[in-house]
Amino acid sequence: xxxxxxxxxxxxxxxxxxxxxxxxxxxxxxxxxxxxxxxxxxxxxxxxxxxxxxxxxxxxxxxxxxxxxxxxxxxxxxxxxxxxxxxxxxxxxxxxxxxxxxxxxxxxxxxxxxxxxxxxxxxxxxxxxxxxxxxxxxxxxxxxxxxxxxxxxxxxxxxxxxxxxxxxxxxxxxxxxxxxxxxxxxxxxxxxxxxxxxxxxxxxxxxxxxxxxxxxxxxxxxxxxxxxxxxxxxxxxxxxxxxxxxxxxxxxxxxxxxxxx
Length: 261
Ligand SMILES: [Zn+2]
Description:
8 helices, 4 strands, alpha/beta
């Protein structure tokens, strides 16, 4: 007796015939990170969330008749200003570019029309990568920051890193990885910059994590609930899935309206 519980469209789970015998017009590539997330969430938070959103988006699209494949997540992100935090693993933007170029080249011969970079980590600034790669590939490249796709007013203060939004999302998808005793969670308070220009938004500088935070969190996680995480992620998945279905049939020569045509 065997039961097949593999997730539809998740490449890590799929067999050769399952992939070979269909067309896959859209692929999702989650971008995660390996870094501390306050005192209560796992190092793999971004990778876990990106992978889960990708799997749910693939399932939703397949249920609607569009084959979308979720690729394995990139487990390391850009963490150049967190290297003094133990076992944070950084990959340089230039390394991400090299890896992404190879992934795109691998997908090109196999009918993939669109590749969605499904980002789950703020330090991964993927636009420069797409700007560099797009002219060199027929695959339509798009970026989705999953945490920006749904209505964050469901949270009191969504937060930025291991705050209420991310905590609620992990409570929803992997509750066994959230420290149960809420009293031990850091408050995610951040120290303001000592430079006026940075505080007022005239200038941006990357946060030196150990100067800016005490517990590595940015945003108070303590109001998080799994229910709100579920609401937020469900909406995010719906919206990202709708976009993937659009992209599957999009005409790369007509991605913008031309009123003169
Ligand atoms: Zn995170």
